[in-house]
């Protein structure tokens, strides 16, 4: 038996035809006048927004955008025949008029642009032609402001563009070459594109070029002259000048940081014995700290023992070298890149004062008609002040193609090329500590058997101040295609990335170059920091 419609009745064929018609109507019955009777009508497909389309092929429409050319004038209407002159004015005009596009000539614009989400720059246009057609990726619109400025910043905007054009909050850079100049300020970075504030941007058929980061400034060197010297010890008084001859007064060194070094007082001179000298001391910068003992005071004459000289005070401690800038301390924010500086060196401590010299007795030296006191000892010399620390080396500037902070960025069919990171600044050199001064000599104690003048004992020499520590070197600059802070970045396979050399870490200002050297920078396609941490001010 042949299978087919031949064996079916007319009623069956009619029923099949009805079913086919209903099925056809369900698939697209908006063209049928009767689909409403079967409750199977669907709305026609939504027509695309009048301003949507591929920037490479879609005609430039005056109702969809503002036209900008170097020969234009910002007082004009922004049409094909009357373009405005600056990109920033075109962007603001498009935003105010609810137009999603800026049609930009394939020319150089030496200005920086702030682009709100939802506004697109369609670059590379042939503005000498009536249709302002796209010339191709090899004829881009160039955005190249002077050094020190970020060429393009994209940020979210509260205003919503007219629903007539687009409900897409994304911005688009198409046919645009963004060029950041080499940084010239010490430690300055060259960043081509910054995207912040939950903005969304797509970079397509464009070029993102960042220049070289600038070297960091060196830390300030402490003064070349040695720090303030100690105070000279005072001399003791001669025998037979008083019945009790007081020891020489303490010598006191006062340093700019508030610390003080005290030479011990000299021992007194009495008729039958000499007093011992007092110990030297140091009063720290922090008045809450107890004074530190310096050189021991010398003993005075007692019995057959001669007097003793005061001991020298100890030298001050050297200041610590500052730490170098570390990679882990690098930060980025909407303000830009924040490399890690080194730390300043700490100052050296003051030298301790020398001990006072011992005194002598007056018996057998002084005539009966004279006062009977012996000669007093000289006071210890004051210690020298500690040297100042060297300043911190500044971080080298970085070269960054795209910095995105809390935003979403997609890059395709584009080129990101960045320059070299700047070297970190060296740390400043510390200052040499001040010299301690000698103690005072003892007073004249009489003549010996050989006819020579003898003296009470001298005070000890003050200690030298410790040298200041060298400053730490700054972190070297980075060479980054993208620096991302808790946002999204999608570099498509069609995107070409070129990195350059990193900046070297700055040398330490201390005597040992291994201590306090800054870390070298990094070269990466994508550097990420998951949490925004505000850098120190």
Automatic annotation (TrEMBL):
Which intervals of the chain are annotated as region Disordered?
313-391, 502-521
Hey, what's the signal peptide range on this chain? 1-26
**Keyword list, A-Z:** Signal
Q: Where is the composition biased (Low complexity)?
A: 330-347
- The answer on whether this UniProt entry bears the keyword Signal reads yes
Which residue windows are transmembrane per the record? Answer: none
List compositional bias (Gly residues) regions by residue number: 348-362, 374-391
What domain of life? Answer: Bacteria
According to UniProt, the name of this protein is Uncharacterized protein
Give the organism, scientific name: Sorangium cellulosum
